[in-house]
Amino acid sequence: MLEVEGLRKRYGDTVALDGVSLTVRPGETFGFVGANGAGKTTTMRIVMGVLAADAGQVRWNGGPAGFATRRRFGYMPEERGLYAKMRVAEQIEYFGRLGGMRAPDARRSAEALIERLGLAARRADEVDGLSLGNQQRVQLAVALIHDPEVLVLDEPFSGLDPIAVDALAGVLAERAAAGAPVVFSSHQLDLVERLCDSVGIIKAGRMVAQGTVAELRARESRKRLRVVVTGAEPGWIDRLPGEVVAKTDRPHAAVPQGAGDERYDEVILVPSDDQEALRVAASAGRVQHFGWQEPSLAEIFREVVA
Q1: Are residues 224 and 212 in the same domain?
Q2: In total, how many domains does the chain have?
Q3: Could you tell me if 246 and 185 lie in one domain?
Q4: CB of 201 closer than 8 Å to CB of 38
Q5: Does the pTM of the predicted model rise above 0.70?
Q6: What are the DSSP E strand ranges found in the chain?
Q7: Is a pLDDT exceeding 80 seen at residue 242?
Q8: Cα 139-203-149 angle, rounded to 5 deg
Q9: Which end is more exposed in the chain, N or C (fewer Cβ atoms within 10 Å of the end residue's Cβ)?
């Protein structure tokens, strides 16, 4: 189990981290989200020993994480740490040797990762000749080459196309299934929501929310209704009680396929009275949908950091 306890870090008068704590259990994937400059990268660098904390500690399996412990971690920094003129296969193997592997073992592991990550056609190419997506795959292979006990990945999905995202997501799921704690940061909240068992939201160096997506949804103070009505006259939405968060009101010429020729209105509402909202919708037209809507992680994030 990876434990981060009370990390604090200052740069002069700037507080980068103010008591950050998190726990990632074996086989758990933890999504670390926050605005630029919130403290995600600083936290990860302290976990890896790249930076020293002013206070707090990083623990692995109950003991302090030192140099020997961190050699068993896999790290993917946001700023890619590859040798531009080194060829793909020899680069991955080289980092395996740096991680303490014997040459034959590093070579076998490198070849397996090259195949798994779809780099077979690029194994003899220099890194600076690769696309961004393929450079990301090489960087991930470097993080995985020594079969790490923990994965710490800073913005691993940045700039990837959907195929590369799926390949990377599959590898992370495999590592988690094998029992490794996986921590990654991302601004792509739909991916975090889909891939992670738990999420931490950081703001200005403080963890402001943490838990499973379901737990974070349960904390959401404003329940939302999704209401779909067809055949209503314009202006009926103004009579709904509560706050209209979003609405789509289309004349009959722009309704979704299969909705017929009638006007189509879709509303996301924070109601002050849900029964009155139902009455207004039913009196306005035909109610096609009326139900509570679970907030997305992006909506939770916006509410938490506001």
Answers
A1: no
A2: 2
A3: no
A4: no
A5: yes
A6: 2-11, 14-24, 29-33, 55-60, 63-64, 73-76, 150-154, 182-185, 198-203, 206-211, 224-230, 242-250, 264-271, 286-293
A7: yes
A8: 35
A9: C
Residues 125 and 163 in one domain: yes
Residues 225, 86 share a domain: no
Domain identity same for 160 and 236: no
CA distance 160 to 169: 11
- Within this chain, do residues 84 and 196 fall inside the same structural domain, yes or no? yes
Co-location of 234 and 92 in the same domain = no
Q: Is the pLDDT score of 158 beyond 90? A: no
Q: What pLDDT, on a 0 to 100 scale, did the predictor assign at position 253?
A: 43
Smallest Cα–Cα separation from 109: which of 98, 86, 93? Answer: 93
Same domain, 52 and 135: yes
Last residue of a domain, one of 163, 182, 217: 217
At 301 the pLDDT is 87
Which structure tokens are listed for 299? 């909506």
- Could you read off the pLDDT of 173-223 as tens digits, one per residue? 999 999 999 999 999 999 999 999 999 999 999 999 999 988 888 776 678
Within 8 A by CB and 6+ apart from 145, the residues are 92, 93, 95, 96, 99, 101, 106, 109, 110, 113
Tokens 């096609």: give the residue.
288
- Residues forming a β-bridge with 206: 203
The dihedral through the CA atoms of 303, 19, 59, 100 has a sign that is positive
Among the residues of 21-61, which ranges form H helices? 40-48
Give the domain range for residue 64.
2-217
DSSP 8-state secondary structure symbol assigned to residue 159: T
What is the strand order of the sheet 2-11 is part of?
A: 14-24, 2-11, 55-60, 63-64
